[in-house]
């Protein structure tokens, strides 16, 4: 029996891939839009108003073009060809830190964050890293809920990030990639 010929409808609409230098302006745009939406009440207005898009673009272009080490990476989430989110990672001792994980709010709840976290985990496993860490603003309920559903837990670390005249309290989150429960080896609660 012959099967009907299926018409190809193009390529996958959603994916995660390593960032290229050409993605730098899109990464900077996603960062600004997301920070304004998610942290507008948390960060002083002058911090967001002082945003220099050209400087941010060049900073991301350098991070992608000449990462400080092989353990540094920038990944982008793509939807219908457009960059809609990104993640950046860096070595953190024997762990890998997710230094940034952002999805533009209008593209949220479509799996982009999950795909980015899965890709970061794959990169870490390839490098034989078994722990991922990330620092979140204590008030960032959306990201903390997302990470908790992905198997992350607060690690117990606390730091203050200076922001204008104020300081943002950040909590360290972590997950194990070797199957161990991150909540079981928590050092304490903030």
TrEMBL record:
Coiled-coil blocks: none
Q: Where would I find the N-acetyltransferase domain in this sequence?
A: 14-178
**GO: which molecular function terms?**
acyltransferase activity, transferring groups other than amino-acyl groups
* A Pfam family matched in the record: Acetyltransf_1
State the UniProt keywords alphabetically. Acyltransferase, Transferase
State whether keyword Cell inner membrane applies. no
Protein name per the record: GNAT family N-acetyltransferase
């Amino acid at each position: 029996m012959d099967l009907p010929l299926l018409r190809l409808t193009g390529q996958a609409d959603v994916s995660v891939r390593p960032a290229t230098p050409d993605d730098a302006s899109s990464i900077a745009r996603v960062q600004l839009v997301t920070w304004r939406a998610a942290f507008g009440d948390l960060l002083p207005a002058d911090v967001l108003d002082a945003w220099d898009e050209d400087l941010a673009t060049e900073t991301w272009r350098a991070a992608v073009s000449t990462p400080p080490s092989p353990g540094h990476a920038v990944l982008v989430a793509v939807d219908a060809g457009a960059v809609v989110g990104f993640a950046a990672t860096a070595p953190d001792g024997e762990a890998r830190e997710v230094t940034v994980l952002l999805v533009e709010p209008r593209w949220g709840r479509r799996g982009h964050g999950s795909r980015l976290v899965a890709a970061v985990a794959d990169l870490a496993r390839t490098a034989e890293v078994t722990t991922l860490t990330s620092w979140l603003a204590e008030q960032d309920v959306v990201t903390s809920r997302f990470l908790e559903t992905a198997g992350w837990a607060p690690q117990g670390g606390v730091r203050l990030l200076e922001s204008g005249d104020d300081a943002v309290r950040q909590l360290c989150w972590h997950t194990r990639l070797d199957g161990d429960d991150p909540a079981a080896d928590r050092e304490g609660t903030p």
